[in-house]
Amino acid sequence: MIALAPVPIIGLASGRFLTWIEPKYRGIRETVSRLNSRLENNLGGARVIKTFNRYEFELDRVSDQSDHYHDEKVGAIKIRRAFFSGLRIITGLVFVAMLWVVGSDIITGSSSALEAGVVATFFMLLRRLYAPMRRVGKTANKYQLAKSSSERVFGILGHEPEVTSPEDAYVPESVEGHVEFDDVTFSYEENETILNGVDLDVAAGETVGLAGTTGAGKSTLLKLLPRFYDVDDGAVRVDGVDVREWDLPHLREHVGIVEQNPYMFSGTAEENIAYGDLSVLSGDDESVSDAVVDAAKAAEAHEFITDLPEGYDTEIGERGVKLSGGQRQRLAIARALLNDPEIVILDEATSDVDTETEEQIQQSLDRLTADRTAFVIAHRLSTIKDADRIVVMEEGQVAETGSHDELLRADGDYASLWAMQAGGSVSGAATADD
Q1: Which end of the chain is more exposed for a tag (fewer CB within 10 A), N or C?
Q2: CATH number for the domain including 419?
Q3: Quick check: is 168 in a domain?
Q4: CA distances (Å), origin 290, targets 43, 96, 270, 280, 297
Q5: Do 111 and 193 belong to one domain?
Q6: In whole angstroms, how far apart are CA 161 and each of 151, 153, 158, 300, 351?
Q7: Dihedral sign, Cα of residue 165, residue 168, residue 170, residue 173
């Protein structure tokens, strides 16, 4: 009975240990995640930190996260040490008690049945019994550590996407590019309406410029087209079919996007362009796909790429840090050209470049939008003045629509914005433009 006394004690202690250690391990994972996020932000924003001399400020923020991690880690270590030490003490005390009882019987001769060999065998078996009992603690510790880690992993893997393809999804044989926004209402959060009853019908092959003040809903409206979000009310249709009925990957294959700050992957210039159509990668390190080169030439990117140290095989760094903003834009345009979509979205694609670079990018954008349905968002109205139609948005609604000349004659919001950017009156701006 004495030899088996630790069994229920160890069982109860293991249960309590799991209860105490679980929140500690969860806290460790959460603090590590926050610390990694902080470090990633600091590395990515190193230039901004240097510019504003915020080294000490960021150091304090990293130190705070590091201290939280240290506290959680120390708390877990203390619980583990207390638990494992307790296991050794319990089994050790029982072992000593058994030695005392058996030894006393042998010395006093009160138990003649106990011979030296029997006693030795008994204690050897007792040690074998207690060894796995102590390992139960280590196993419980590893289990809880793995559980806290797996909760985060399976939490991400098990997250159901909000936007998915329906059963029997629509997959057309060809796409023309006719786009309709029918009484579209949308909000990111409740009671904060971003779009309110937007109606817009865009013919296939038409170029539409979107203008308006910051926060008017221009970018949000176009995020609904490739179903980054779904409308709250109304419908978005492509070729007469609600985008919610389309096969999602198929829909997005036909929508090309060039953003203000295009994302570049860590890899070569060729790999980043070929992301638009992975089938063009030859797998031959000695040659570059003709399709990639053609797309780069059309995007006015071929010349600067060939000037790079290793040409198309040059590593451009994480997020394309080895390239200028204009070079990243042209790579993004080449990527979109290679994808050859029927619908193109240009979101402030030339806002952060100099005049010479803007002219080069504009030439490549003209090639990208040719014979395609194009949506062009621009604060710089000169970028969209030649669009087939200009739509002015204000507070989530369509305020004005028409050609550049028509909107100037209407003397509304667009005319005011144009005069402000042109540095004169509406009539003066119109005359100068003519």
Answers
A1: N
A2: 3.40.50.300
A3: no
A4: 36, 81, 11, 8, 10
A5: no
A6: 18, 16, 9, 37, 32
A7: positive
Q: Do 30 and 127 belong together in one domain?
A: yes
Instruction: Return the closest-CA partner of residue 419 out of 331, 411, 20.
Output: 411
Domain's final residue, options 104, 122, 157:
157
Rounded to an integer, what distance in angstroms lies between the CA atom of residue 6 and that of residue 144? 22
Cα separation, 159 vs 170, in Å, equals 25
The answer to the question of residue 1 being in a domain is no
Rounded to whole angstroms, what are the CA distances from 113 to 105, 182, 225, 284? 10, 96, 89, 83
pLDDT given at position 11: 65
- Please give the share of the chain, as a percent, with pLDDT higher than 90: 26
So what's the pLDDT on residue 135? 66
Q: Dump pLDDT digits (tens) for 335-362.
A: 888 888 999 998 887 665 566 666 777 7
CATH of the domain at 25: 1.20.1560.10
Domain count, the chain: 2
| Domain boundaries, position 24 | 6-157
Tell me the pairing of strands 179-189 and 192-202. Answer: antiparallel
- 142 and 185 part of one domain: no
174, part of any domain: no
Can you say whether the dihedral through the CA atoms of 171, 172, 176, 179 is positive or negative?
negative
Residue 173 lies in a domain: no
Chain segment 99-146, per-residue pLDDT in tens? 776 667 666 665 555 565 666 676 676 666 666 666 666 666 676 667
The overall average pLDDT reported for the chain is 81
Tell me the one-letter amino acid at 198.
V
Is 331 found in the same domain as 213?
Answer: yes
